[in-house]
């Protein structure tokens, strides 16, 4: 089967590779000419496990090709971004343009599948009419469905194949045809529903995670005010068979959690109050971490600060909506000398962790890269001046550092800064 994947970013490119690995003839479409050129040379524009070697092999075997314009195919999968607009609503610009680009190529018997996160009702109210205006009958000669992606950056190849998937078909025939297609590359369970339910399910999944992170962050701040170690509280509470607190942190980043809840928050009425509050809590966490850093450097003459991590999540290079960037901008306002290091994000200003720590007074850990977790106290003592560490990701064994005379603050003892 020939498949056009529209949008060759963090979801689209791995999806295109998985399809090609499973015997499909894949054409990847992206409006960015430099991205297309890179892909056709076997080079990846994003950092993702297995993607580099897999793409090189597929390109060399002519099993996948990238282009800037759509062409005729059996199936079209749209994987373009849906960011927020200036009014904190879903910006449908990329999805609309993707649809416009494929419709001249569509013919009877084709599948059109949306994987981009969209507000409930988008498929039936926007996508379906656009197709019908071309004279097609949905469920008879065009098979339309919403199939949200469910992947964890850094493990996308595995999760595209093994995670359960939802097929939100517009008609019964759409559900049947599209689910049969997904079974050619998905080994997880496939669940059938209507498109609007599938759209809301995707958003609900991300709201669930955002709300639970906000709960951990809110309780951590409360524990700080009460001079209680929140990490101990969570560890003990999680011994309860029906309790599972997430880890508090410096904020929520990425393309999903800070964005998708707003797709159902147009009116911000009582029916969505907990979602609004959770967003407010998580959006304020970078300010909270920056305020703690300010308390530390206020007692240091001519402080030099090192910030580790620009990516929003460990071991990936994705900086979209990263709380690290917000914290860095806050520290710029303090007019202190600081430098940034991230071993995964390309073109960071400092090339080595040793260089980043040289003569620094304060190290702020903002991302849980594996390299940061293995930080050696001896390196800290050798490179930093009167070292203090603010571990906003709770990834260091603070006891081993304190035994070496290094002060470590994390969500367990932030109250010591009060």
Give average pLDDT, whole number: 95
Top-tier CATH class of the largest domain: Alpha Beta
Report the C-alpha radius of gyration, rounded: 24 Å
The CATH superfamily of the largest domain bears the name NAD(P)-binding Rossmann-like Domain
Structural class: alpha/beta
Number of strands: 13
Q: Indicate the CATH topology of the largest domain.
A: Rossmann fold
Based on CA inertia axes, which overall geometry fits?
Answer: globular
Number of separate domains:
2
CATH architecture identity of the largest domain: 3-Layer(aba) Sandwich
| Helical percentage | 25-40%
Question: Which consecutive residue ranges, at least 5 long each, have pLDDT under 50?
Answer: none
SSE topology string? EHEHHEEHEHEHEHEHHHEHEHEHHEHE
Strand order of the largest sheet: 3-2-1-4-5-6-7-8
Main sheet record: 8 strands, mixed
Distance between the termini: 63 Å
Content of β-strand:
5-15%
